[in-house]
Fold this protein.
Amino acid sequence: DPAACKEWWQGLTQEKRDEYLSVYPDVIGNLDGIPAAVRDQANRENLQLLIGKLEGEQDEKSHTQLAGLLEIDRKLREEGTQPPMFLLGIGDEGNGRAIVSYGNPDTAKNVSAYVPGLETSLDEDFAKNDLKRARDTAIDAAFENRGSATASIVWLGYDAPQLTGSDDWGANFDVAQSDDANAGAPAYDRFMHGLSVTNETGDPHLTAIGHSYGSRLVGAAATQPGGIPGVDDIILVGSPGVGVDKAGDLGVGKDHVFVGSAGNDPVTWAPSSKQLVGGAVGGVLLGPVGALAGGYLADPDGTWFGRDPASEGFEARRFAVDDGPLPFPDGTPTPAHSNYFNPERDPKSAKNIARIVSGHADKITTEPHR
């Protein structure tokens, strides 16, 4: 329990703390309830140990994770990085673990924790692109708050679904299931609880952010007993559904659930099972037009994991985002799916996310529900 962990750490002498940090950096660095600065110290030490370990391995997974670790290490060594980086978690289990904060979550009044989705793992792409999303959010949120302390976190504390590139459809079907989200939800809840108990401001404003399949994990975490500890607002972007049909079922009140769905993001249009059946029946009877009509009539607001969060029936607050490019302009199937956090490619979305994270949700720009 993070609160008990905090009490345990506070009760240790400095000599004992130093001993634990020296002998067990991998354990201390990943304990929720330990102060962020201590976790960062431990994880920087463990990062070097992991790099040394993986440099001696020859398999593809080790090479992939090593590239991610080296890029994180490079970013940590950059002089004068602002906001400052804190390494709150690191590990090579499963597809890899990495939790990085831009800004100190123990001293920041506004703290957000973003969960990435499909195909995310501890690799070079994560260390470059997902860390950039967290940093962009931290910078924009600090601007919205006139420079006051803000912490923006990317949380890769679970095994996200992976596309294997195999012809075995079963091996590629994880993204269509809730198993990975349900398995990761307790760890996310525990992490968020840890942020609450170590924060020194008394009552931090916490925002849970889920992108793509990460929104399904946030939905699973929100429907655990007690919900996501300490969370005030929930942001869902590029979501194929979150496992519930109403924003009010996520534990923070429907007015504190915010949704960004780009018009050209195919992930947000992922059909529900009812739509697939209705479309198949309509297609048999009336061809392509019948397939579209049958799918819509079978489940008007449906997406793969429940009601479309951008629909009126879901009752969340839909903020304005750019429609984004159509699929396959440059061979990429989902270019609009990756722009929500990017202040260059989608400034409307990035600014709205920053306003919510910084506690200024009253200033967001909105767009009609689907």
About this structure: The two ends are 41 Å apart (CA to CA). Residues 273-285, 287-299 have pLDDT under 50 and may be disordered.
